[in-house]
Amino acid sequence: MPSYVVTGATRGLGLAFVKQLSADSQNTVFAIVRNKSTATHLTALSRNNIVVLEADVTDAKALNLAAAEVSESTGGTLDYLINNAGGSTMLGLTATDPTPEAIEEDLLQNFKWNTISAVHSTNAFLPLLKEGTTKKVACITSGFGGLDVTLQTGSAAQFSYSVAKAALNMVVAKYAVELKPEGFVFLALSPGMADTSSTAVSPMSDKMMAQVHEIMSMALKHFPDFKGPITPEESARMQLEVIHQWKVEDSGAFVSHFGNNKRWL
């Protein structure tokens, strides 16, 4: 039975990953959430092959405890790790923001959520992955973390988030280089633009809505094939196809849900 760990499984893409993977009764899916009491969409699935575990992905000790629970359940192995958890402060800062304290705070928070958390999670589950049959780790990143996308679109939006995701892409490359001889497959995977509003905790603020409209305008202008946001379910399906087909020889790549670095939306 293939085993999967999905972080950030409470809602959005993480929830969509769990839904699709658990639809196959042969899979065992460990859903990592920060707070079980708020994971109502997840618990409503009521599937026997879903195990909900509580851990804040910025807390290495909590992740190690979660890994111990997974190990107890699987006999010390794990096949797939999907580092989906992440976030953005959505403050609208740019690199030239006049308040250095605000920039530093925003950068550190985004690094903690999007970069450091993936390192903690990967290291916590690495011993189990080494005993697994697949040895695959997918880190959900963003097209905003790509230099080419930024330069092509001319977008200065999402400064701290973009920098943190670019760092995550390098994290993936470093793990890939170190662990490729052991047969590991690491992948930095952009999910495209998915509409996760249906499972959002609270409605977007006016500032967040303005940023979304800016991003949408940019997408329509620079990506002619873009038809608008896709559902989390569609994004998760496409990403899982990429994850399952990715090979050791291509470990460390940064690609979109289309499986390439040419089309991001």
UniProtKB/TrEMBL annotation:
Keyword line: NADP
PROSITE patterns: ADH_SHORT
GO molecular function, one term: oxidoreductase activity, acting on the CH-OH group of donors, NAD or NADP as acceptor
Entry protein name: NAD(P)-binding protein
Organism name: Mycena metata
Lineage of producing organism: Eukaryota, Fungi, Dikarya, Basidiomycota, Agaricomycotina
